[in-house]
Amino acid sequence: MKIIIEENYEKMSRVAANILLGKMYQQKRVNLAITAGSTPIKMYEYLVSDVKNKSYLDNVHYYNFDEIPFKQKKGYGVTMTNLNNLFFKPAEIPESQIHPLNEKNYKNQDKRIEQDGGLDLILLGIGADGHYCGNLPRTTKFEDLTSYVGEDATENMKEILLSEVGGDENERPDFYVTMGPKSVMQAKEIVLFATGKKKAAIIKRAFFGPVTNEVPASLLQTHPNLTIVLDQEAASEL
Ligand code: GLP
What positions does the domain Glucosamine/galactosamine-6-phosphate isomerase occupy (predicted)? Predict the structure, then answer.
């Protein structure tokens, strides 16, 4: 496990963007699964200007690793909407390079990625409870592949689904789909990044504590090519 600690959010975001860019400049197809959420906002700002109109990045393919559908709104769910707004649209990434995961195709996700050559890199955020993608403490099993997680999966699942749609009760779905721990561990490289004091305790627990499904991200410690990128606040308990 490699840990990179940067002074602040901007510098941490620049490092994360550079890691992705380092993967992108290759002659062969490159498959990246990338995170939505608030942590990557600055990183995507940097990436948009780095990759926009670069036709030599035509080999780069993008996957989302989870999707939370809106109950009523048609079209993309929370994750793809977020990725479109932050990155795909402003960077003008052609649709042919974007491979959305959703409730219709989740059963094929692992196979599809395998047939495409596997993920070269997956970029993850982490929740303060240790979840990553939609993999939840105690509920998700380390051997789970990409799955459908219903509103009865765990006792606070309805609250989780509500917070994923920004607290809008009209849009609260009754499930989401997510790549599982086993799917994520198949990526050739994992990068997890975190910012701010609210992530400091979980970073310590997940990467310097025991591997346990109480803390889903702790499994990532066992990946042979894991890099953690933190700002000083997220690293403040190490
Ligand atoms: C959501 C996403 C996760 C993400 C997490 C942390 O639950 N499904 O993939 O890692 O939020 O998000 P943030 O970066 O906003 O703290």
Answer: 17-223
The residue range of the domain holding 59 is 2-231
Walk along the chain (238 residues) and give the pLDDT tens digit of each residue: 999 999 999 999 999 999 999 999 888 999 999 999 999 999 999 999 988 878 778 999 999 999 999 999 999 999 999 999 999 999 999 999 999 999 999 999 999 999 999 999 999 999 999 999 999 999 999 999 999 999 999 999 999 999 999 999 999 999 999 999 999 999 999 999 999 999 999 999 999 999 999 999 999 999 999 999 999 999 999 9
pTM above 0.90, yes or no: yes
- Which candidate in 61, 120, 131, 223 is catalytic? 131
Residue 236 located in a structural domain: no
Q: For residue 171, what is the domain's CATH number?
A: 3.40.50.1360
Q: In the 3-class helix/strand/coil scheme, how is the chain assigned residue by residue?
A: CEEEEECCHHHHHHHHHHHHHHHHCCCCCEEEECCCCCCCHHHHHHHHHHHCCCHHHCCEEEECCEECCCCCCCCCCHHHHHHHHHHHCCCCCCHHHEECCCCCCHHHHHHHHHHCCCCCEEEECCCCCCCECCECCCCCCCCCCCEEEECCCCCCHHHHHHHHCCCCHHHCCCEEEECCHHHHHCCCCEEEEECCHHHHHHHHHHHHCCCCCCCHHHHHHHCCCEEEEEECCCCCCC
Nearest-CA residue for ligand 1 atom 3 is 133
Number of structural domains found in the chain: 1
Report which ligand 1 atom has the smallest distance to the Cα of 176: 8
Pocket of ligand 1 (CB under 6 A): 35, 37-39, 66, 125-127, 132-134
- 33 within some domain: yes
* C-alpha 56 – ligand 1 centre gap (Å): 30
ipTM for the assembly: 0.93
Determine, yes or no, domain membership for 238.
no
Catalytically annotated residue among 50, 99, 110, 129: 129
Ligand 1 geometric centre to CA of 51 (Å): 24
